[in-house]
Specification:
Serine Threonine Protein Phosphatase 5, Tetratricopeptide repeat; TPR-like_helical_dom_sf; signal
Length: 178
């Protein structure tokens, strides 16, 4: 599986660029607004699923194949190969936030928290409302014993989706009823 993806990348013309893909800005804005107004955790979870469908929709077929390969390798615990596959994805398509987010997830699972933070910051810079990257960054900071810093990131995620289960990690509630 991974060799076919790597060969596809190597066979791609040097001048090939990653496609821009579908612009989901309006859909993301609608989902965020609906999440903020969600009446319960179940409603917010459905919206979260819709958001993940958008994030996992790669800009072109090659990126989708590379992402699928990296995710499959993550699922079986082959973090080194996943890192290689997702790094190739990022090299080819540096403006696709999910490549960074998934590579960060593999780094987190490997306890390589510094690498995870770099990729999470890249994903967030590209898509500031990326809940997976925001919560991933909060969890990574907590794992690094940087809990105070994690609180701000966690609050940013909760501003998007107040029903996140990670809200239980807040040291002090901010006084709002979530």
């Amino acid at each position: 599986m991974k060799y076919a993806i790597i060969l596809s990348v190597l066979a791609a013309p040097v001048f090939a660029d990653c496609s821009v893909g579908t612009n989901y800005s309006d859909e993301i804005a609608q989902i965020v607004g609906d999440m903020q107004a969600a009446p319960d955790p179940g409603s917010a979870q459905v919206l979260s699923g819709e958001m993940w469908e958008i994030w996992l929709d790669a800009p072109d077929e090659l990126v989708q194949a590379m992402l699928d390969d990296g995710l499959a390798l993550l699922r079986v615990g082959d973090y080194v190969s996943s890192y290689t596959s997702l790094s190739a994805l990022i090299d080819y398509c540096p403006d696709y936030p999910e490549g960074y987010n998934q590579r960060a997830f593999g780094a987190f699972l490997s306890c390589n928290y510094d690498a995870a933070l770099v990729d999470l910051d890249a994903a967030i810079a590209l898509r500031p409302v990326h809940l997976g990257a925001l919560t991933g960054k909060a969890l990574t900071l907590i794992a690094m014993d940087r809990r105070d810093e994690a609180q701000g990131v966690l609050r940013a995620a909760l501003a998007i989706n107040p029903w996140l289960s990670e809200r239980a990690l807040l040291d002090e509630p901010d006084g709002t009823d979530i």
